[in-house]
């Protein structure tokens, strides 16, 4: 298939590009290389893709690029570009989230509405649920985000559904639950935990450690995205890892993997949901999603990747 991946240089986006290439797809990656975190990390992600057959890269802002002619030649668009992170979405930073998560998504949908796309896959977030009414949480539960970031992801989701209903845009919105794996964004909990284990610096844990998440391995996520693109199904679905784990359990598991972490505890922060747990029945029935990587194996992959990176001499 001819595919486009927005946010191609990011954590999930670069894994998705590699997965699509491994399946024989042509991939056009688009990324603005914003500075939410060190752009050099994104360039490293791209370096593993550039030079491969069937991969091309275009740098640019999705609000400015001529998307219509690009989409006209594509079978599938995977829209992963956006501004991540809960804590930075409060205050003056909200304007950036509004632009990159809502306005950009509306621009992508406008470009898609008059094309013959087979599927548009949008990366939404479990943050739309906030502190959900029930667990495991099904898609029919009323969304109630507890952060401005979650609000923007829900708004983008609603735009996707509006364009699907009004114009027949074949869009799938996937609510991703705490995606982790090698190359995870440096601001995310597991990346900071593993780095702390190797640097022997205390990891700041906000809350008492009993807060829990449904952690989902990145390889399972990108495989599910392609499955969703190949399916005739459209709508909104959860992508979780299949089990709910507390942060205290994660710390214990890291010790078993030989990567003990010193912890500095602090109060819970505004906007952090107390608990997430995905009901993945819909994704399983709609496009055959079955997460295959358990937390121990996924964390072990992150630990080994970090060890290997620290053993590699600087060029």
TrEMBL record:
Pfam families: Epimerase. Residues 4-234 form the NAD-dependent epimerase/dehydratase domain. InterPro entries: Epimerase_deHydtase, NAD(P)-bd_dom_sf, Sc_DH/Rdtase_CS. Transmembrane segments: none annotated. It comes from the Bacteria. PROSITE patterns: ADH_SHORT. PANTHER family: DTDP-D-GLUCOSE 4,6-DEHYDRATASE-RELATED. Belongs to the NAD(P)-dependent epimerase/dehydratase family. This is NAD-dependent epimerase/dehydratase family protein. It comes from Streptomyces sp. R21.
